[in-house]
From TrEMBL:
It holds the Pfam family UQ_con. The keyword Transferase applies. PROSITE patterns: UBC_1, UBC_2. This is NEDD8-conjugating enzyme UBC12. The keyword ATP-binding applies. Pathway: Protein modification; protein neddylation. One of its GO terms (biological process) is protein neddylation. The active site is at C103 (glycyl thioester intermediate). It catalyses: [E1 NEDD8-activating enzyme]-S-[NEDD8 protein]-yl-L-cysteine + [E2 NEDD8-conjugating enzyme]-L-cysteine = [E1 NEDD8-activating enzyme]-L-cysteine + [E2 NEDD8-conjugating enzyme]-S-[NEDD8-protein]-yl-L-cysteine. SUPFAM superfamilies: UBC-like (SSF54495). It comes from Ogataea parapolymorpha (strain ATCC 26012 / BCRC 20466 / JCM 22074 / NRRL Y-7560 / DL-1).
């Protein structure tokens, strides 16, 4: 009986182990199963898969040659709620506003818990390959894309080089001088 009480006392003094949140487990699983996508690179701390740094480098289209940096925050109720992405640079894009918020259907209305981080990464890359003027966050860029494609192209290239579009100064996202950015 004395041994039993001693054992119970020892157990009572041990810290209660906390369960690992489902979101953490799912995010870690998504990242472990990630298959490389050309034009996408990710970085994250294995101890914290809830924050992911994403770099998008399109290899074709108007945004080719740019390096676009995003941070992905995985919410505590993932996969029931979509991850949140923010572009860290000010860019000229119809689906990304000047504060870096991203408009992608699978991050809003079309989100389903069966979708993975990999699929969302691919969706963000797709925004650079095929910008969508029909679902804009930057209405000026969307208007240019749909009504004035040549002007849109000039604005994209100028903005990527760190220039101005109207009164807005954009962040330089190209690493090399290229005459098409002049």
């Amino acid at each position: 009986m004395l041994k039993l009480k001693k054992l119970q006392k020892e157990q009572a003094n041990k810290p209660v182990s906390q369960s690992v949140p489902v979101a953490y487990i799912r995010a870690k699983k998504d990242l472990q199963e990630y298959e490389e996508i050309p034009g996408i690179s990710i970085k994250y701390d294995e101890a914290n898969p809830m924050r992911i740094d994403l770099e998008v480098c399109p290899n074709e289209g108007l945004y080719q040659g740019g390096k676009f940096k995003f941070v992905c925050e995985v919410p505590e109720d993932y996969p029931n709620r979509a991850p949140e992405f923010k572009c860290l640079q000010k860019i000229y894009h119809p689906n990304i506003d000047l504060e870096g918020h991203v408009c992608l259907n699978i991050l809003r209305n079309d989100w389903k818990p069966t979708l993975t981080l990999q699929l969302v990464f691919a969706g963000i890359l797709h925004l650079f390959l095929q910008p969508n003027a029909n679902d804009p966050l930057n209405k000026d860029a969307a208007n240019d894309l749909s009504k004035y494609p040549a002007q849109f192209k000039r604005h994209v290239l100028n903005a990527m080089a760190g220039g101005y579009v109207g009164d807005e100064k954009f962040d330089k996202v190209v690493d090399y001088p290229d005459r098409r950015y002049l």
